[in-house]
Design brief:
seven-stranded antiparallel sheet; single chain; alpha/beta; eight-stranded parallel sheet; 533 residues
Length: 533
């Protein structure tokens, strides 16, 4: 979603509340100490890592840069994520569509003169080869409109790179292009591979990314043509939508595709934690930042369940804590508590949540001037990991089976091989809003103590405790110490920030008759690992 033109303000990031049983509770101040029992032999539920299967990124052409690919490898190594989603694979800068290619290049006339000659897959191949070579699949967002196929080239979206967002001038030509793209990908990568990719029709057609009028009806036309054209390449290709902002249009979309017998393999939509209740729910509630994502996911989950197609998978193909370039949100350590609690709440409701985005090799608001400006990535410019990168790294340690806990500030899991992993956190309200990071006046909030009783583990087991918080793995604090330089950094400054970003080695502790006490500071996330026996 990113910095949409409709947005003018921000809201506070508040504490989340949802019991692991699924009961929703109002946000409240955490007690100073919490006692938690973890039974390592308790019955578990599947805990697929839905929060780290897909990441978003800057537009397609940026993936050819060395800096993009370096950051991609680093996030892949930390999370083993499966796929990447970006805008713009159909844009002119990627070079796919040029109906004048034959007349501009008379020498090509000697080649086979058919419609395929107007397509150039060179950069698409380089883009997708670069991902696959690094173990990452494309999550293919089919956007935006090639200029020579736009019904009205004057309709653009105000991002830095000014994408064309008009409907096509000729749907027969659009259909031919989509089918040709599907056929080419199958020929190059094989159907068994490409059948695992998700193809998503457009991006946020309910906002200024779609110039059709009326928006919904004209998007249905785009979706219908695109889905059928893609399936013409192979019925095994997976297609979905409506990829809306603010968790919108899903019941109408499902009704449309069901009644019109249009192919659909998944439902996708977006939400950000500082979206407004009036936009997501049509209410005047003051929904805190920490519960907005959960509530939007729950809304759409329930809409699908009540629909004529109740088994459709649900993907939130964009989500995040802020769309508004808030450095004290996106760049700061409390992303750890926010992310962990969002995972806790959304577990069991969704198949895939794609965090936007993996890297600040990103130009929607222009060329990046400083590493810490509230960018969407978990790695800042100059390959400087943010606290959010470290949070993803630690939460990757969670197992694939969840152990139920009666806690709003902890997750427990096992991997089925005797390893037990516990995440715990101490949420605190940000120390200021807006585009400038402002340190809180005085303490951000009280430390929080956790008293664990671990059952069915060795009473004197050794545990490892990993931390990301204001004093562990926090590159933003080092940037503040530098006085927040506003321009390019020296190589020495970059090295200093990269060193500050590094996660410290874990603390080694010993259970005392099965007990463990830990203190977590405000904005802190801690992850405990141990062997069951």
């Amino acid at each position: 979603m990113k910095m949409k033109t409709r947005y003018t303000g921000t809201t506070l990031f508040a504490a989340a509340a949802l019991l692991c049983s699924g009961t929703f509770l109002p946000a409240q101040q955490s007690p100073a100490e919490e006692r938690i029992t973890v039974d390592a032999s308790a019955k578990t539920t599947p805990f697929p890592h839905f929060w780290e299967q897909t990441f978003g990124s800057g537009r397609a052409i940026l993936s050819l840069r060395e800096s993009y690919r370096r950051d991609l490898k680093q996030v892949k190594d930390a999370t083993n994520f499966d796929s990447i989603r970006f805008h713009g694979i159909l844009m002119d800068e990627v070079g796919l569509y040029d109906p004048d290619r034959m007349t501009k290049n008379p020498g090509l006339e000697a080649q086979k003169a058919n419609d395929a000659s107007i397509y150039n897959f060179s950069y698409i191949d380089q883009i997708y080869d670069g991902l696959l070579d690094r173990g990452v699949r494309p999550y293919v967002e089919l956007s935006f409109m090639p200029r020579k196929l736009a019904a009205d080239p004057s309709i653009t979206q105000p991002f830095f790179y000014r994408p064309f967002v008009s409907p096509p001038s000729d749907y027969a030509k659009w259909d031919a292009m989509i089918t040709a793209l599907g056929q080419h990908l199958i020929e190059r990568y094989g159907l068994d591979e490409v059948s695992h990719w998700n193809f998503e029709v457009w991006n946020e057609p309910n906002l200024d990314f779609w110039g059709g009028d009326p928006k919904q009806a004209t998007y249905w036309t785009l979706y219908d043509h695109t889905a059928r054209a893609l399936k013409a390449a192979s019925p095994r290709l997976r297609v979905g939508g409506p990829a809306t902002a603010q968790a919108a249009w899903v019941p109408d979309f499902i009704k449309h595709v069901h009644d019109s017998h249009v192919p659909v393999d998944f439902v996708s939509t977006h939400v950000y934690a500082n979206d407004l209740a009036k936009d997501v729910f049509g209410t005047n509630e003051d929904i805190p930042r920490s519960t907005m994502v959960y509530r939007a996911v729950k809304k759409v989950h329930d809409q699908i369940a009540a629909s004529s197609m109740p088994t459709l998978p649900l993907y939130f193909s964009e989500y995040g804590a802020s769309y508004a370039n808030e450095s004290n949100v996106s760049d700061s350590p409390y992303m750890g508590p926010w992310l962990a609690n969002t995972i806790r709440q959304c577990d069991g409701l969704i198949q895939n949540m794609a965090y936007w985005s993996f890297s600040d090799v990103f130009e929607e608001q222009g060329v990046v001037r400083t590493p810490f400006y509230g960018g969407f990535g978990i790695i800042a410019a100059d390959n400087i990991p943010k606290p959010s990168f470290n949070a993803f790294t630690l939460l990757h340690k969670l197992g694939t089976q969840r152990i139920a806990l009666k806690s709003e500030s902890a997750l427990a899991s096992t991997d089925g091989n005797g390893a037990v992993t516990i995440a715990l956190w101490n949420y605190a309200v940000p120390g200021g809003e807006g585009t400038t990071y402002t340190k809180p006046q005085g303490p951000a909030g009280p430390d929080r103590s956790f008293d664990f009783q671990l059952e069915h583990v060795a009473k004197d087991a050794t545990v490892q405790v990993w931390r990301v918080d204001p004093t562990h793995g926090n590159s933003l604090a080092a940037f503040d110490t530098m006085g927040r330089p506003s321009g390019s950094l020296t190589r020495e400054q970059i090295r200093t920030l990269q060193q500050a970003a590094a996660l410290p080695a874990p603390e080694s502790m010993t259970l005392q008759n099965g007990h463990l006490k830990l203190t977590v500071p405000a904005y802190g996330l801690a992850v405990i690992t141990l062997q069951k026996q």
